[in-house]
Amino acid sequence: MIKNELAGVLYNRGTANAKAGNLTQAIEDFTQCIEIKPDDIMAYNNRGSAYAQQGDYIQAISDFTKAIGISVNDPVAYHNRAVAYFCLKEYDRAWGDVTMVKEIGATVNPEIIRMLEEATGK
Length: 122
What we know:
122 residues
């Protein structure tokens, strides 16, 4: 139980650090959380988001993919990964993840769809 509590503290601290713009510290906190609780989907999503905010889209995609591996019906991870793919101009992969979000029954940010349509002419 103590390990789960520590993982929760690290997750919450990572979230606070990310909100404050302390992305490097947030990534460290989420990494420690994942080491304790390797099935924490939100820790992977949030660490991936922090990497994306730093411009490290490859690492972000890796984290979002790990979250999807833990829960194949996690629309947040697909949505976040679509954005990261878009930033890398991997539009077909971005569209694939947008489609998955819709198939899961979740809503895609209309701005992402607009940007993809504009970039691809679809």
